[in-house]
Amino acid sequence: MVHGNDVLHKNHFRKKWQFMVKTWFNQPARKERRRQARKAKAQRIAPRPASGPLRPIVNCPTFRYNMKVRAGRGFTLQEIRAAGLSPKFAQTIGISVDHRRRNVSVEGLQRNVARLKAYKARLILFPLNPAKPQAMEAKADDVKKATQLRRPIFPITQRAKHLKAHEPTPSELKYRAFHAIRQHRANARLYGKRLKARQSAAAE
Predict the structure, then answer these.
(1) CA 151/CA 148 separation, integer angstroms
(2) How buried is residue 93: exposed, middle or buried, by Cβ count under 10 Å (0-12/13-18/19+)?
(3) Per-domain residue ranges for the chain?
(4) DSSP assignment of 124-177, as one string?
(5) What does the pLDDT look like over 18-49, one tens digit per residue?
(6) Per DSSP, what are the bridge partners of residue 182?
(7) Contact 49, 94 (CB under 8 A)
(8) pLDDT digits (tens, 9 = 90+) for 1-21
(9) What is the dihedral of CA 31, 36, 38, 44, to 10 degrees?
(10) Predicted TM-score of the model (pTM)
């Protein structure tokens, strides 16, 4: 699509245009193949959840999308340990682990730890040896009742904040949102420099 105040091009596609045509006749068959593949995978991994392992909630990067949340690749080692699990064991019970991701906020860490704990509380773990069930493993009655979850595990929803319509106050009219964001970013960036300057001034 055209960006800015650019010229609308007149594309000269007269010669041999038939060779340039892109057809899309395989779309319905491809849709059906994907559906069949999902069905086959659900049967193959049963009684595990059909949607795959549990994923963390992460914030999207950049100015444009950072108010949105989405599913991440895997939980951090810090989140896994805070939920009382070990990374190796977590991978065996349907939790995805990403050793590269780092927690940069307390809120994000707490949100994912709560997600892991909720998953752990609802989990029906089939015993390896039914005669000697381990600590987290389910009893025989629970195993009989277990069914495969066909929908996503704990679907991620956007945090919508509904505000009641009101007349803007003088302080709201004076508030400059973009300037405030820039100010916060500058304060975070210059925190170390300013702290060092204060400490050197106090030492003198």
Answers:
(1) 9
(2) middle
(3) 28-145
(4) -BPPSSTTS--SSBPPHHHHHH-----SPSS------------PPPHHHHH--H
(5) 998 999 999 999 999 999 999 999 999 989 99
(6) none
(7) yes
(8) 678 888 888 888 889 999 989
(9) -170
(10) 0.75
